[in-house]
Amino acid sequence: AQSVAQPEDQVNVAEGNPLTVKCTYSVSGNPYLFWYVQYPNRGLQFLLKYITGDNLVKGSYGFEAEFNKSQTSFHLKKPSALVSDSALYFCAVRPNAGNNRKLIWGLGTSLAVNP
Amino acid sequence: ETGVTQSPTHLIKTRGQQVTLRCSSQSGHNTVSWYQQALGQGPQFIFQYYREEENGRGNFPPRFSGLQFPNYSSELNVNALELDDSALYLCASSPRQGINEQYFGPGTRLTVT
Question: What local confidence, expressed as pLDDT, does residue A101 receive?
Answer without folding.
Answer: 73
